[in-house]
Amino acid sequence: MIKRYASSTDVARLAGVSQSAVSRTYRPGASVSEETRRKVLAAADELGYRPSRIPQIMLTHRSHLVALVIGGMYNPFYSSVLEAFVARLQAEGWQPLLVHVDNDCAFDDVVPTLASYRVDAVVSALAILSDDSVRQLEQLRIPVIAFNASSFGDRVVSVSSDNVLAARLVADHLVARGARRLGLIAGLVESSAGRERQAGFTARAGELGVPVAIQAGGFRYEGGRAATRRLFEGPMAPDGIFAANDLMALGAIDALRVDLGLRVPDDVLVAGFDDIPSASWAAYDLTTVLQDAPRMVDEALRVLHSAAELTTARPGRIVVPPVLIIRGSTDRPVAPVQVA
Amino acid sequence: MIKRYASSTDVARLAGVSQSAVSRTYRPGASVSEETRRKVLAAADELGYRPSRIPQIMLTHRSHLVALVIGGMYNPFYSSVLEAFVARLQAEGWQPLLVHVDNDCAFDDVVPTLASYRVDAVVSALAILSDDSVRQLEQLRIPVIAFNASSFGDRVVSVSSDNVLAARLVADHLVARGARRLGLIAGLVESSAGRERQAGFTARAGELGVPVAIQAGGFRYEGGRAATRRLFEGPMAPDGIFAANDLMALGAIDALRVDLGLRVPDDVLVAGFDDIPSASWAAYDLTTVLQDAPRMVDEALRVLHSAAELTTARPGRIVVPPVLIIRGSTDRPVAPVQVA
DNA sequence: TTGAAAGCGTTACCAG
DNA sequence: CTGGTAACGCTTTCAA
User: Fold this and answer.
1) Which of A168, A276, B313, B319 could pair with A204 in a Cys bridge, judged by C-beta atoms 3.0 to 4.6 Å apart?
2) The dihedral of CA A224, A229, A231, A236: what is its sign?
3) Res A340 pLDDT > 70
């Protein structure tokens, strides 16, 4: 087995000082003579020495490692969340250990590994979080922060947008712009965010006395496109569609224009959720709900800080206000139009 | 300071056995009596114990940690590469430590942190890798694998597509489909991949006797859109455009259709590079070069395995064959058309 | 099969 | 200011 990294003892030997002296040289505010420091730094430079955090982890019971659990990176919303998270964690002295899971039971499998690295906390950006994984992490006393998944509000801390309110705003907007037969493209039933968006939208539509047809789109572009075609196979062709995320909304727009030969927004209004970059591309110009990722990350980090000194974060829900971004895909006069 | 994780000593105490017995219980193939194993597992379960890898790192000089350095996650190509990498690393027993850098000097800043966690290797998916960072990692004897950046072929291992060949194929294709005045939207000069694509394209166009106008697009959608408008301000309005990545190509298509009122592919052919998901969306249907991310990740992992036992990977370039994906954005008869 | 003990690379504490 | 030493949690070796 090759020894790759030099140790403080190696440096001490070369510099002709004690190992303690090397340690002190790298500890700010420790008392080392200029002479010793010089010798140590010279030796360290020669050997390519950097102090190791590993023994510190044993001593302090703090690794400064945070597990970041991600699932569907196909959704650009999650890439931007990930990027923001990593940048913020680094800036505050944490190191993200990235964990990718395809499906939920795979998460259970990696929990022991995370534990073996003694992570200080787990941040999950999974749409879905199984009861089992939560229980496992609880037993290991690892604080868990759920991003965009509120189903475990009583056991973990969750940070998410106000999905219900946002979906209600979308329903209001579509109806105000003249829609009278709504279509909803749902995500995955396992996703609490998706369920909340569906609930808010259908509730508000009900209050407004407007019917809603529902098709599942699985949060993907192709799913949204297929769901849209199915919506138009039914008896009630919608004149306003809300997709539970932007990817599906973009698929819906393409289905309407390319597969069905309809115009957006002239024939059908379309709105999405997330405000991913492609939502603002000229070909789509999609009305959507902005999820304030930086703000959500901020909140998650606030929780992380407080959880760092506890064995578990205090359960609860943190809800970030959403913003409706109105673009061309719903750009019609506000005055209700006459519908056949 | 709270002690979050139980130790083998805690378990031993509760189980009424020695700490060695606990260790052996978790080491496959060690000799423990059924009775002891039972007591240990019961105690471990009660305390939520998982063996720690931290002391092992000290003993073996191997952390099984791999630093994954990422930059522009705005490009979906990198999210999919990241996802593939993380999945593969995990499957093979490594843990990715994620590092995000905004600009290159920021990388220099995190190198000491990576070293302090005793990472076994660094995989950089940065378009740009500074000379300084490479030198720093060399001095620390950390093997480096550069993904999609070949400028340091003599110092590190790089894995990339055959950018030159791919760009030549694109030039051939555009000209075969009738383009006679080419436009090239370049990425960033600092990116070796971008430079290679530009070199291959202009070289082949030269051989074919077709002029090329160049505008920089910075690898972003907006940049590609603006670059396209600039191409048409010049004296030579192109009838075929190659963008050094898909994001810029999509911006180009929107510029052509929305800003300039031209048709794609009827008036102008457009091709990109990467084959990101949105390239195949109906609104764009973009001809592009597929970078075989899974294959590239495979190659990188092969290098990682061999580098794991060395203090440095043997420098060299690994080049993965690209595939031209022909879609609607260049869909014109193969026979050369007459151009004014 | 079992327990005791050394050692990994640090930091903190102590005596000099 | 300096060097020696204990301690962290684990694996491995050795003796019982």
Assistant:
1) A168
2) positive
3) no
